[in-house]
Design goal:
- The protein is α+β, with helices and mostly antiparallel strands.
- It has one domain.
- The chain is built from one helix and three strands; from the N terminus they run βαββ.
- Strands 1-3-2 form a three-stranded antiparallel sheet, with no helix packed on it.
- β2 and β3 form a beta hairpin.
- It is elongated.
- The chain starts with a strand and ends with a strand.
């Protein structure tokens, strides 16, 4: 399995480096609340609650 987190930095309106840091920090603490199995995933939101990416668990390497 693999964990994939994708953030489209062009979609982040303000301070992309700070938003990316916030997103990574949030998901580091939140990943334990989701099943780590293929098919799990959801949208990644920025501070303005705009979808800027997604995370997912996939089969494979």
């Amino acid at each position: 399995m693999k964990f994939v987190l994708e953030v489209v930095l062009d979609a982040v309106k303000e301070a992309p480096a700070e938003e990316l840091g916030r997103i990574l920090h949030y998901w580091a603490g939140n990943v334990g609340h989701h099943p780590l199995e293929p098919g799990s995933g959801e949208a990644i939101m920025d501070s303005a609650y705009t979808a800027v990416g997604s995370w997912r668990i996939e089969d494979g390497q």
